[in-house]
Amino acid sequence: MAAQDTQTATRPATASVGGTGCVVSRVKSRLQAAGLRPTRQRMGLGWLLFAQGDRHLTAEGLYEEARKARVPVSLATVYNTLHQFTEAGLIREVAVEGSKTYFDTNAANHHHFFIEGENRLIDIEGSDIAVATLPNVPDGMEIARVDVVVRLRRKA
Amino acid sequence: MAAQDTQTATRPATASVGGTGCVVSRVKSRLQAAGLRPTRQRMGLGWLLFAQGDRHLTAEGLYEEARKARVPVSLATVYNTLHQFTEAGLIREVAVEGSKTYFDTNAANHHHFFIEGENRLIDIEGSDIAVATLPNVPDGMEIARVDVVVRLRRKA
DNA sequence: TTACGTGCAAATAATTTGCAGTCCC
DNA sequence: GGGACTGCAAATTATTTGCACGTAA
Q1: Which of A82, A145, A148, B72 could lock A111 by a disulfide, CB 3.0 to 4.6 Å apart?
Q2: Topology (CATH) of B20-95
Q3: In terms of CA atoms, which chain B residue is nearest residue A96?
Q4: pTM
């Protein structure tokens, strides 16, 4: 069943838990649903992550944004929080080579363009790509996820 | 054209440059074709990399093998050499999340299984997977490569 | 109150770099 | 011989951890 999910990019249902319409309370609800206390830092980072549509960022990047947005938080907490959010399924890590780890605020299955040289990620719309035939999976294993990265370079 | 290559996994033509049949001289030829002096270290690492079929390894891993095989080489040189080989197109980096960088001795386009928990990579046979529809590429860009990683987990 | 969070600084882990000495062409 | 290559150790970069203090339930 994981195979089919690969082709869709719908938001997870949790996006509207406790949907009062207010972004802040929605962030709060998502945290609580994940068993995380809605502390000032987590609320602030959650706001930055979820209030602006789908984004791809690094821990450093989010830390920088938090500073600009006057969210009082340390870099270590940004790392901790990103991992907790990932564990909770609110965001996910994107597998790209390179030293830094990128996090994607869209936890639903979808794929990416990766711009070589710029180290930038762009979402690929769900309907624009599909994995046709899936390979035989080794015994005792199942597919957790299928990641597709289309690497782009500037045309000559 | 990059799109179609995605589905094939044939070895690159360079694999047989100067093919006298002897593995050592074949490694030597490949290095020279890439403009790299066939030094003892590069020959040794080239042997380890190419004489055993397709492999996926980290710098640390190759260093360890070199030690066991009595190839005198330092870790720094292993890193340098892996990057030079990558630049020359003899091997390639595989994009998987995690701290370590994996190198693949098969530089041809093909895809991978990634075993979660074990951090292990397995080749997917070229014919077993295919990307059906490719997305529209942004203006001025072209596809450099398409990477597919099928993440596997042990069945419950 | 009290367990969970957070900040800071120090610790790791992977990788890169500077430079003196070595080796291939 | 001379530039390319290598080894070592020190430097960098990204990330994690230990521990004292703060704060939500």
Answers
A1: A148
A2: Arc Repressor Mutant, subunit A (1.10.10)
A3: B95
A4: 0.83
